Amino acid sequence: MADEKEQVEEKEQKQEKPEKKGNLPLLLGLIFGIILVQGLIVFATIRFIHAPQGDDMAQEETPEQEVEQQQQQQRASGNEVILSDAAFETVVNISGTEGSRFLKVRIELAYDPDLRENRNLLSVATNRISHLKSTAIHYLSGLTLREVLDPSAQKNISSDLLIRFNNSLPSGAGQFSNVYITEYIVQ
User: Fold this and answer.
1) Nearest C-alpha neighbor of 161 from the set 117, 103, 74
2) Which of 16, 35, 52, 173 could form a disulfide with 169 if both were Cys (CB 3.0 to 4.6 A apart)?
3) Which spans does this entry mark as compositional bias, Acidic residues (predicted)?
4) How far apart are CA 173 and CA 29, in angstroms?
5) What is the phi/psi pair of residue 127, to 5°?
6) How would you classify the pairing of strands 102-111 and 178-186?
7) CA of 100: how far to CAs of 123, 134, 146, 149, 187, in Å?
8) DSSP one-letter code for 117
């Protein structure tokens, strides 16, 4: 009988002990943690080590520097020179808006210095800057809201101003080759 009692007690003890579920959840948690740490390391490396330094950000060019750089490239190529002395901004009321809307434009004029007829154009344009600005104001103030909002407005305005500017120059002074609109704001 004692043997039977011992056998019954052993069976009860085996039944009372919880079965081990294994180390699978612990192993999965450990693998997930390692992957997460590696991802954070990669992110930190890309974000902080490969990010632009303060000096690089200070070297970013402003729009004025970009325009000046383009002018220098054009002078070097010999195709076209922008008359920086004859560049100007103007603000006009848009026709038909009763003064509630306006147009701000920055205009730069270009010419081909290789053409013999243009040899005096720089001095003529510099001396006539007030007349050129007046011509631009007169033309721009006559534009309607529809005309200034048109997708091809800048191109149309540029070509119309080129014709008007060239017609306003005295004979023998030369001709502008292009009118660049470098700023165009409709408010």
Assistant:
1) 103
2) 173
3) 57-67
4) 82
5) -70, -25
6) antiparallel
7) 38, 22, 14, 15, 9
8) G
C-alpha–C-alpha distance, residues 166 and 134, integer Å: 14
CATH code for the structural domain at 63-186: 3.30.479.30
- The residue behind tokens 């011992």 is 6
Q: What is the pTM of this model?
A: 0.57
pLDDT in tens, 35-49: 988 988 888 887 777
Task: Report d(CA 81, CA 132) in Å as an integer.
Answer: 18
The amino acid at 11: K
| Predicted confidence (pLDDT) per residue in 96-134, tens digit | 998 899 999 999 998 888 888 878 888 888 888 899 999
The interaxial angle of helices 129-140 and 153-168, nearest 10 deg, is: 140
